[in-house]
Amino acid sequence: MSVDRMYQTYYGVYLNHWSDTWGGNTYNEMLVKEYPNEYLSTTSVSIVSDITFMYPSLYKNKYYLDGQMEGHFTIYNQSSTTSYYVSSYTVELKKTNDVASNETVLGTYSNTISSNNTVPPEDYLTLPIYMNIEKQIVNPNERLLLNITFTETGGTYTYVGFSHWNDSSIPDIKIKVPYAYTG
Length: 183
Fold this sequence. Notes:
Helix content is 0%, strand content 60%. With 183 residues, it is mainly β. It has a single domain (3-182), classed as Jelly Rolls. The mean pLDDT is 92.
């Protein structure tokens, strides 16, 4: 039996006039295959240290994920005077059906960083994601969630957060998910 792998690229955006309730949560943050129209009302930055994006539809009726997920995410510092430092981050790919608190982790990546971790004033820091996923089944009634958290050394989170601008020329949050099929 051979396994064929295909990769689907997703981008993280925040749409102001779209939301979906799934698994007891309401999401404005979504994963998209293509950037939406640039004239849609979007939010460019969320000043939080924990964010979750949902892929709002099925990739296929039933499939599994297997292989290396890779990508990146971007943190923005909106302070005009102070640099901040990211000391660690964790990325989880999850699946959930439409039941509150019923999430299953498909893969996790954690990283502690002590150099090249500065977010200068009014600037960005982009961090990599490389996550192994081993043959995880996703059923027709489940959706994918991308959860990202980071720790800022000062722990204030007043000025730093996730950048997720709806701009295809500079993708702030981008992942390539490995879908596998048997044949």
